[in-house]
């Protein structure tokens, strides 16, 4: 589990992360979303002990990252796939990580196979790797210690569609086996497919948190009747927000019972009454972060 409590980071007058609190639970993939400059990467660096917080705390498996005994065996981290020694081979990178964390050498071959790097590719210098190969090597390093938690920042960058699907399946399997996954990505369609929970931040603050189904479920109902105009007028008189539906009927910001009682009181026969269709993640993301997007600043 990852527990973040009132995490704050200030760089002089700039408040990069502003009182962020959330949890990422075992058995679930938690999507960590926000526009460029929202503070995602800074928050993840504080979680993993790379950046000291101004205030607040982050705990992984009940302790600060630095307080974990041999954290590389408990937490797999991939924050920047390009931050690898360009002169080493992929295999050398993993062998050195294995020596530093006390992992058996056989794990090197196991994770290379898991991430799909062939023996020939593992024998090449990292400087010759494509971005997608660097991502696979970074994920292999994260998986090397057979960790309980994965913290991944944009791990799908540079992967082709087959690679993205592979990563999606890997993360689902990891969570299904009881692992905790915190995943940041700008590929909203992938987050929508793989995440169980979502945490959305804008300008360093949490603007939404909950299960994917809770956040994507549109509020209100869709209703059709034999006299939509009369029903809309009656609902508005009752103080309910009503809009004409794109495909006919009415979109009503109220529960089904309120709409049904209002229609009955107005003598209008209802022919359809159902929950509103779910929003897509892109629609939700833009709605929540429209006022907070800072495209000119990197996360």
Automatic annotation (TrEMBL):
The keyword Transport applies. Keywords: ATP-binding, Nucleotide-binding, Transport. The keyword Metal-binding does not apply. Residues 2-228 form the ABC transporter domain. One of its GO terms (molecular function) is ATP hydrolysis activity. CDD domains: ABC_BcrA_bacitracin_resist. It holds the Pfam family ABC_tran. It comes from the Bacteria. InterPro entries: AAA+_ATPase, ABC_transporter-like_ATP-bd, ABC_transporter-like_CS, P-loop_NTPase. Belongs to the ABC transporter superfamily. PANTHER family: ABC TRANSPORTER, ATP-BINDING PROTEIN. This is ABC transporter ATP-binding protein. It comes from Isoptericola sediminis.
